Amino acid sequence: MLGRIRKLGGYQKHHHVPDGHTDAAQNFVRKVGQVDVKEAADSLITNIRNLFGYKRRDFDYTCEDGFAWIKTPHFDLQIRVDQCPHNPKNYLLITEIIALHTESIATDHRFHNCFTQHCEQLIFEFASPIQVQDKIDILEDIPELAKAMTYEPDGSAFELKLPKLDLRIQIDESTITFSLLTLRDLSKLIDHSQKAFDILACAEFGLRLR
Length: 210
Description:
This protein is α+β, with helices and mostly antiparallel strands. Helix content is 31%, strand content 29%. It folds into two domains: 1-118, TATA-Binding Protein, CATH 3.30.310; 120-210, TATA-Binding Protein (2-Layer Sandwich).
C-alpha cells in the first residue's frame, strides 16, 4: 500500500514531512506509522484465525517500532512501514510472507483467500549469485523469449513479459521476482510462476523460496 506520510495515524500537526531519504526519516516514518501497522496486523490476524481456526497458543504475534511479526504453524509473515524509496514524502505499507512451513500451504485456498489482496509479488532467492549475462545469452537464443526480454545495457538485470502466462519476471544476480500483468490473484501467481520455471529450465536457475 502506497500513501502520503502525513496521512499516517501517528502524524501530528507539528511534524514535518521528510524531504529526503535518511536513517532519521526512515525511523520517523516507522514511528508515525506504528498505529497503521498494528491496525493492518490486527485485521489480518482476525482473518487468519477465522480461515485456519488457530487457537491463541498456535501463533506468535509481536508489533513494535513499525514492524509486526506473525508466526503460525503453516507460515510466518511480516508487516512493516517504510519510507518510499522513489518519493521521500510517501510511505509503503508492506505485507511479506517470509516462510512457508509446509509445501501444501502454497496450494491451500484459505491461504490464497487470505493473502490475494496483500501479496502481488513472488520472490525467489538464488542460493548464490548468478551470472546474469550468461542467462541473457541463453534466453536470447530462444526466439520467443528473446522477443519478450529487455535488459540493462550492462547486463546486470533483465525482465521478461509473458502475456500468455500473464507474468512479468524480473531477474538480477540475487533474486527472481514474479508478478502478474493484470489483477492480483495469488493462486494464479503461484501456479503460473511454477509454469514459468519449466520455461526457464534451459537457463538452469538454482532457486529457493525467500
